[in-house]
User: Fold Superoxide dismutase from Acetobacter senegalensis.
Amino acid sequence: MKYLVLLTPAAGKKVEDIAPHMVPEIKAVWESYNNGVLREFYFSASPPVVTLIYEVADEATLHSELDRLPMIQEHLLDRQVVALGPFVQFQALFDKSLLGPA
Assistant:
């Protein structure tokens, strides 16, 4: 299953709190990427958001992966997880009952 993960600084945390953990964090992200569970990663500076796309068996496995990240362990980042699925709305293109009157 595919998951979108948004990581944002925890309440009250500043760049100064996070900076010393950057190298271990990036190494952990690289390890997940090399292991094939982390598929994509992005960063937005303002507001600061790290976006990760994981592909794992289930949400428990995902949280296990996230719990290995040093900044999560140090409670420096909050996480938001969104399970991604197929875009079933395409069904409207082919299901005549959903089209309404012509």
The chain has one domain: 2-98. The mean pLDDT is 92. The helical segments are 15-18, 22-34, 59-66, 70-73.
